[in-house]
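Internal tracking record. Fields below are filled automatically when a chain is submitted to the structure queue. Please do not edit lines marked as system-generated. If the sequence contains nonstandard residues, flag them in the REMARKS field before resubmitting.
Queue: standard
Priority: normal
Entity type: single polypeptide chain
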Amino acid sequence: MIPGFQVLDADAVAARLTPAAAVSALEAALRGGLDPGASAPRARVPVPGGELLLMPAHDDRYAVVKIAGVAPENPAQGLPTITGGVLLLDARTLMPLALMDAPALTELRTAAVSALAAGRLAPADPHHLVLFGAGPQARAHLRALAAVLPSLRRVTVVTRSPGRAAELIALAERSGLVCEVGDAKLVTEADVVCCCTTARAPLFDGAAVRDGALVIAVGAHEPTAREVDATLVARAAVAVEHRPTALREAGELAGLHAGDLAADLAELVRAGLPMTDDRPALFKSVGMAWQDLVVAGAVYDGG
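SYSTEM-GENERATED OUTPUT FOLLOWS
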């Protein structure tokens, strides 16, 4: 046993770092000059049950390697789709410091990235959130968005899983939000639309999103999958985590070039993106290893 080595399960990860604190950690890292492009590209390894995603990153203090399993058939066996672990090491000695639950850390950091962007891109005083999906990422996004958008009052959940919807409604109500199940047509009323699904085809008509609203899409990170349609992409001011990564991995952005994107996350944090009410905003996230690094480090520091 390595002296001081910590094993942190999902509950321990959640207990050590709140969604708001995760947002603050990401913001501080970007303001401090972190370069998202310095992370190695995500490696995909096909295995019998699905695929392994290998994601390393480092800064001056820590190094991290996430091994995430994606097993599409697991839910039929009562098992989670996403599995794996995040190994945190000292960057100087490469001595292991902690092993963290990968699904919990991924949920926390993905939602925090979305919330960080939403703080810059959402319309003033948003009240209505339309949330596609009712799984772990949807729950994480509800918590994170509620933390950074205190004016939210109403949540509409669009899902094919009634059982999970009940859990999400209960979570929203504990946060003081009015929450109900609805359909995709309600994007016409939304201030913020958040897509947290495994859909491979667009979830709604992009023409229905009102000018000035924000759409967040996080569920797809493959060139052949898209949660939002070309109509929305053409209408919107599009922001991403990192231009080359988004153009390589996001199916929604197929055919676009770096100059077609209004901003990346570092630019949003450091300079902001001038927004107007004459078109929607779209934040497309694919997930990057630097986010695991920052949030894993903050979880460890919080112990």
